[in-house]
Amino acid sequence: MANTPTPPDHPDIAPVTIEEEMRRSYLDYAMSVIVSRALPDVRDGLKPVHRRILYAMKVGGYDHNRPYRKSARIVGDVMGQYHPHGDAAIYDAMVRMAQSFSMRLPLVDGQGNFGSMDGDPPAAMRYTEARLARVASDALLEDIDRDTVDFQDNYDETTREPTVLPARFPNILVNGAGGIAVGMATNIPPHNLGEVLDACCAYVDDPDLDVNQFMEIVPGPDFPTGGVVVGHKGVRDAYHTGRGSVLVRARTHFEDAGSDRTAIVVTELPYQVNKARLVERIAELVRDKGVEGITDLRDESDREGLRIVIVCHKSAQPDVVLNQLFKHTPLQTTFGVNMLALTGGRPEMLSLKDVIAAFIRFREEVITRRTAYLLARARERAHTLVGLAIAVANLDPVIRTIRNAPNPETAKAELMAGPWPAGDVAELIRVIDEPGGQVDADGRYQLSPEQAKAILDLRLHRLTGLEREKIDGELRDIVAKIQEYLDILGSRAKLLEVLRGELVELRQRYGGERRTAIEMAEAEHDDEALIPREEMVVTVSHRGYVKRVPLSSYRAQNRGGKGRSGMATREEDFVDQVFVCDTHTPVLFFSSAGMVYKLKVHRLPTGTPASRGKHFVNLLPLEDGETISTCTPLPEDESAWDEMYVMLATARGNVRRNRLSDFVNVKANGKIAMKLDSGDDLVSARVCDAESDILLATAGGKALRFCVSDVRVFKGRDSTGVRGIRLAPEDTVISMSVLRHVEVSQSEREAYLRHVAAHGRGASDRADARDITPQRVAELEANEELILSVSDNGLGKLTSAYEYRITNRGGQGITSMDLGRSGEQRYVVAAFPASLRDQVMVVTDGGQLIRCPVDGIRIAGRNTRGVRLLRVQQGERVVSVARLAEDDIEEAASGDEAEQASQSGGDGAES
Fold first, then answer.
1. What span, in angstroms and rounded, lies between the C-alpha atoms of 799 and 867?
2. pLDDT surpassing 70 at residue 400
3. Mean pLDDT of the chain
4. Residues 121 and 131: beta-carbon distance below 8 Å
């Protein structure tokens, strides 16, 4: 403190910390932006710049019934007198008020180039002309000269400007508003004037109406460009809380384009969408194959209206193409409602009812002030007319007094000196009820200086009989108006009646039809609804190419056949994974980097059985060197995900269990799934429940079965898990299967297997009760699963799951398949459960594929080699086997007899 400099001893200098100064200066700046620039006033719905433009045009005489004036002159008036900012900002604000595609009810009538929906800028202000729109003169600025609103000094105190305009309709709802302040923003959509005025009338009739009742009158925004609001949730949230997200779509219909083609015709766009950029975006998607099925794109818009024509390929489904355009282009946008406005000089988030209530309160104040102003002016005129009426009633004495006076001052004093008989005017004077201007008990009235001056200024022609009647008639009319004004000021019911009448008159004059349609159906599932359900074979190659092919494209063959081409592969590439699922099925894609991505099957590229597909790098945001290692189809119903789990297994034998709900929200850029040790790979991820068993199979012909509950549920996704199976050197895990858990003792398992070996399945009545009862045989047979094991040389077999006894995780496992003792090294490529009613697809690294029924494969013990499923070509190996469940199998056409497999050679068993 000793080193702190002492401030100079001067009365105008005071010490202040920089923190206090920065805080005060920033708050002053923030409040200035909020109140004086960025946010609209809830009463007239205008920001200061818009209010000043309209008022300057009113003062300058640029009314709707006057000639257009140069925009530069208007901008100069605004900038010179009211708005000390750049001319470009003022002109931009004025241009927007003149654009019919920006304002639901334009407030400026522009002549010239004021921009377009294509984003074309307006012409310079020296080239355009403007004047007030009629609605601005009639409904926003009317009565502004009748003391209806407060005025304040302008920026240099040379003139006065209104703090708010006496708006006759809720402009903040009709034309909307948008602005960004410091720490807050507003975004209010436009609405239909007629609906808003009807809601105001309803509030006047019953202020206790709730927001839901107001929504029956104002169902949603009404954008100047039309379009379709889809769903009510966003609108309901916005009207109840002030915040909401409204989904807006273009208005479209289908037309016949000839040659069996259909055209999608766009006639209305969502609010604030740039038409030229929209057409460019659609063209980019067609070029990059982001949206397929479009053959032509034309913008046929003209002075008659908007028209964009999108011609679909004759094989494309127009509904699906349109839905993809909604998803990937601004044909569908979201309007984020944020109903923030200034109320009493403070920013406040408002509901629909709050806005209407604030406007009605403001109109009550305006009408009250206007009525008081008119009453004062009427009383002033009535005061003068009373003097003239008194003079006419006492014409001869008044003329005599004036004629005998030596000068005007004396005449004025003598007129004011003595009271004059009021006569028939006395009753009117009592109605006027002017302070200090009463009739005394004798029926006489004292003239005021103003009245005496008016009598002296009276022209002689006003003393004729006709003119005397006019004075009397005008006085009686003024008295009637005064009585009406007094009634309005004395009765709120009368005031509300006047207010309501003005609203009804305005609705009849300017109310128009709604442009934006409101669709009842929510759009969250529209994308799915337009995608036809179809069984698909999803094929993934070793080098990362994926495609989906309709299951009906593959026909069934007998085992041992030659097969058909399943995918066009390049050198060193081969089919790695094949699975069958629905087009609506969500699929998790687990990568070698331990990331997980999620896509619906219909988002995968379509192909033919012989096509290669599209690489994952074109579908998912993969890093350099990152590949997809396993794909897992998921249940469509997410409500059951909390009770289900995902079991993950790595090539080195580690496993980990997570709740399936951990993978509900997978963003487009992926999500961490599992931490992997260096050199390890994720080989499988399967959905399971807590009562299931896990079967790990290795390439070396080993298998280990343990309960899911042996692996704890991990809360995080960044761990390596726990050991599932202890591997021999050079051995790796090649598959993980989920099996039903069946409680069976060692003796029961052995007895059941002996019974099956002796009598086959379906012969429970022949069971020997000394070893196992027929009832227990039937029960075990009903819950039995068969494990299909396939080796790389095309041999396969079925083995009862009961032969894989349940042990603790972490062991070495037991033999699952005999790989032979030949000099050539063999390995297991697949091991998973299969039903006798299923079919399997066996794929080689050369791209050959065969589909054959499971019931043609021999059921054998664990330590056997099996039968030949596919005749493998020289130099090829089986690399992938996929199960086609009974529900997935569709009967295909028999096709070419030569391609049908009567090639049954090689079906002999090899023990």
1. 12
2. yes
3. 84
4. no
- pLDDT-derived band at 55 (thresholds 50, 70, 90) equals very high
Residue 571 has a pLDDT of 47
3-class SS at 378? helix
Give Cβ neighbours of residue 453 (< 8 Å, ≥ 6 apart). 412
β-strand partners of 910: 866
- Least confidently predicted of 106-110, 201-205, 304-308: 304-308
Residue 723: both structure tokens together: 């050991």
Q: What is the dihedral of CA 296, 300, 306, 308, to 10 degrees?
A: 0
CA distances in angstroms from 403 to 292, 392, 412, listed in the order given: 102, 16, 12
Q: Are 828 and 703 in contact (CB under 8 A)?
A: no
Q: Which two tokens stand for residue 773?
A: 């009862």
What are the residues whose beta carbons fall under 8 Å from the beta carbon of 267, sequence distance 6 or more? 226, 250, 251, 252, 253, 305, 306, 307
The pLDDT of residue 897: 34
pLDDT digits (tens, 9 = 90+) for 883-907: 766 544 443 333 333 333 333 333 3
pLDDT for 366: 96
C-alpha angle 630/634/639, rounded to 5°? 150
Q: What is the mean pLDDT of residues 114-141?
A: 94
The values of phi and psi at residue 570, to 5°, are: -85, 175
127 is catalytic: yes
Q: What is the signed CA dihedral for 818, 822, 824, 828, rounded to 10 degrees?
A: 0
The pTM for the full model equals 0.63
Position with higher pLDDT, 570 vs 100:
100
CATH, range 531-742+783-888: 2.120.10.90
Task: Look at the domain 251-330 and name its fold.
Answer: Gyrase A; domain 2 (3.30.1360)
- Alpha carbon separation from 358 to 173, 177, 202 (Å, rounded): 12, 16, 14
- Measured CA to CA in angstroms, residue 120 lies from 124, 276, 559, 732 at distances of 12, 9, 67, 64
Cα radius of gyration (the chain): 44
Task: State yes or no: pLDDT of 1 exceeds 60.
Answer: no
Per CATH, the homologous superfamily of domain 361-507 is: Topoisomerase, domain 3 (1.10.268.10)
| pLDDT at residue 471 greater than cutoff 80 | no
Q: In this structure, what token pair is assigned to residue 333?
A: 């946008």
Angle at 839 between CA 838 and CA 843, to 5 degrees: 145
- The closest alpha carbon to 725, from 807, 809, 656, 831, belongs to 809
Judge contact between 657 and 694, C-beta under 8 A: no
Indicate the fold that domain 21-193 takes in CATH: Topoisomerase II; domain 5 (3.90.199)
- Annotated catalytic residue within 55, 127, 203, 827: 127
List Cβ neighbours of 132 (8 Å cut-off, separation of 6 or more).
Answer: 54, 57, 58, 62, 63, 64, 107, 108, 109, 141
